[in-house]
Amino acid sequence: MEITSAENPRLVVIDLYLPWCGACNIMEGNYRAMYFNFENAAERIAFYTCAEEQIPQEIAAAMKFGPLTCKPRFMVFAEGEKKEEILGADFTKIETAVKKFIPQLDD
Question: Which among 5, 50, 51, 70 counts the fewest CB atoms within 10 Å?
């Protein structure tokens, strides 16, 4: 199963980066803190990093801010659809998107 497919039940946050500058290390601690704030997080959310050369063409073509630069870029996927694209290391925007799109707990 692809991580961005509609069959993936979790919300997916991907840190996209250029190989020469690497993933956004500043966000890693924030991801961990956010992850543990959600009940049943392992079933509801996942965080990934992806180097430019591994980004599927259909995702790269749909980037609303154009090609990657040294500025951090994050994409949020739910149910096979891109829900948000965040430019820059703005944890508040990432947290807002996660809270908005994270799957609800089953009753």
Answer: 70
d(CA 72, CA 92): 14
Strands 11-17 and 81-87: unpaired
Helix, strand or coil for residue 23?
coil
If one counts every other C-beta atom within 10 angstroms of the C-beta of residue 14, the result is: 21
- For CA atoms 88, 83, 92, 2, the dihedral sign is negative
Quote the pTM value. 0.91
- With a CB cutoff of 8 Å and minimum separation 6, the contacts of 88 are 71, 72
**Residue 33 confidence class, pLDDT cut points 50, 70, 90:** confident
**Mean pLDDT of the 51-73 span:** 89
What's the average model confidence in pLDDT over 72-88?
94
